[in-house]
Amino acid sequence: MLAQTRASAVARVRSLLASGHGRRLPLFLTIGFIALGATNVVLAMLHGHLGAPLVLAAPTGWEVGLLVTFTLNSTLTWRNHRSGTLLMRFGRYQAVALVGAVIYLSTVFGTTSLLRVHYLAASLMGSAAGALWNYAGSHKLVFRVRPARLQPLASGADAS
Q1: Fewer Cβ atoms within 10 A, N terminus or C terminus of the chain?
Q2: CA distance 43 to 62
Q3: Is residue 158 scored above 50 in pLDDT?
């Protein structure tokens, strides 16, 4: 039973790698780290140097990071998977990222209060859970590939 489960898991991983996820996921995560830097630079500039309230500076930094990730993921990670207008994709990306933020916060607050996990460990768990959601949501909802439409048979063609 365990060998069969392991073989099934290995087959699934191979399938995911063959479908492009082996290249996309590491690139997606790298872009996320780049965006984290952009987010923190904006936060430090607005709150640390200009004295803007944290309640304004933090969401502004988050939004800048979101713009960075959307631009780079659209250009690099899913460059061949763009359907719909830029504005539609960005709106879907915003929604996916917002759900990712809720997953992060729920994980942090849930694991620290219910399971008594250290807040930094909880943050890492929340980041991992949010990143997995953001990747899957981006792949399935934002940069999805639409199947080609079936072409009608030419008139007089054999339909058998």
Answers
A1: C
A2: 8
A3: no
